[in-house]
Amino acid sequence: MQAKPIFYNSPHFRNFWESGNGKELLEWAELTPDIRKFDRFSHLYYLVDEPGDAAVKETYLSMPYPEASRIIETATKQKIDKDSDLPPGVKNLFLQMQEIPEWFNQELANTGARFCMRSGVNSLIILRDFSLMGGYDYAYLNKPLIFTGILKKGAVKRLKDTLEFWIHVTRENGLQLNSEAYQLTARTRLMHSYARLQINKKRDSWDVEKWGEPINFWDMIATYTGFSLVLMQGLRKLGIVISPEEEKGVFHLWKYIGYLLGIPPEYLPENRQEAVEQLYLWSTVQDKGDEDSVQLAQALLDENLVNTINRFMFQRRLLLKLHQSMNWHLLDPEINERLQIPKVRTAAIFPQLIIKANKTVQRFYDLNDPAKYQKLVEKGHRDQMKVLSDYIKHTPARHH
């Protein structure tokens, strides 16, 4: 089966890349994409993490849940070798994850991690209102969320899970062997495989030709581009200055995270030119947002009203309006309208306040002063951990 760039000339594709946020990306990358490179990556639309699938088949699909969890917990919390007493597929998976590739540079990854931390709550706003919400406009990318019933589980849980993953993997030295972030990455990888195998039980309802394999490598690369390229694009919109070394570090960090999640590293972007090119080519197989997209967007907006972090309803309604104003500041108007995100009357006020605050903070801390830069990193880390703590505390116990 061969993927085809069927939406290359569609209005939604051309609008995004010729006048919307895609145009901004192309200008930032100083790139003129070449559609003739499509076949270099298109096979990834039908490739998946087979080692992860094998490990899930040997554990969660073959034995009681407590026993399977014990085996996986053992594999994530200690170094294993070829003689470890584990099922073959599980052993193979973790031997691969434990192998640190020659190209990995820990200090460069730490540079990316420090940037993620010093961006503070700004990154959490971008992840929610730009990366996550904007991703809902890719209709086919979201089909696994629909097939696995993510709407029924609630947006509070999904935000908690995304926050927990992103925050832990973006700490300095966070992905050391058997660390909490390493364990969380391994569980995420197995969750992807479990979801894929469950979806494949409904194979008659899954349109492989249009949607690719469930949670395929090309969709995964696009998703994690949202944590690197799109994150930095959004932060630039909020006045955050990014140095060339920080940018390089963010891409390197996410290349390693992608490697741990089973994506072939030779396809993971190392800079904004490669990332923009892949996003451009991948988006030619993605239809515009549909009814499922609108449901996902509405669930994310409604999360503001059902989350109990804010005690009073007037606080929750105010927070909803603030997030809607960020959606309209960050996303293309066409996407906001397609996802049916209501426009706030004073939509520009909150984003402009954030931009002014960020410029003031960056002047005060002086990004060129190592001591002041480190203080900003520490402050951003504390602010992010506080948000995560609130989400963990207020996520219903049945969802943990």
TrEMBL record:
Signal peptide: none annotated. InterPro entries: Lcp-like (IPR037473), MPAB/Lcp_cat_dom (IPR018713). Pfam families: MPAB_Lcp_cat. Residues 133-345 form the ER-bound oxygenase mpaB/mpaB'/Rubber oxygenase catalytic domain. PANTHER family: ER-BOUND OXYGENASE MPAB_MPAB'_RUBBER OXYGENASE CATALYTIC DOMAIN-CONTAINING PROTEIN (PTHR37539:SF1), SECRETED PROTEIN-RELATED (PTHR37539). This is DUF2236 domain-containing protein. It comes from Kaistella pullorum.
